[in-house]
Amino acid sequence: MTTYDAGAVTLRKVRDYVWEMPKQGDMRVPARVFASEALLDEISDDKTLEQLRNATHLPGITKYAICMPDGHQGYGFPVGGVGAMDARDGCISPGAVGYDINCGVRMMTTNLTYDDVQGHEQELVESLFANVPSGLGGGGVFEGTVGDVDAILEDGVQWALRNDWAVPEDLEHCEDEGKRPDADPTAISQKAKDRGKNQIGSLGSGNHFLEVQRVTDVYDDEVADAFDLTEDQVVVLIHCGSRGLGHQTCNDYLRRIEKTHAGLLDSLPDRELAAAPAGSQLADEYYGAMCAAINFAWVNRQLIMHRTRQVFEQVFDRDWRDMEMHLLYDVAHNIAKKEHHQVGVDADGTVVADDGDAVEYETRELYVHRKGATRAFPAGREEVPPAYRAVGQPVIIPGSMGTGSYVLRGGERSMHETFGSTAHGAGRLMSRTQAKKEYRGGDVQTALREHDRIYVKAQSGATVAEEAPGVYKDVDEVVRVSDALGIGDRVARTFPVCNIKG
DNA sequence: ATGTGC
Question: Binding site residues of A for GMP, as ranges?
Answer without folding.
Answer: 207-211, 333-334, 398-401, 405, 424-427, 501
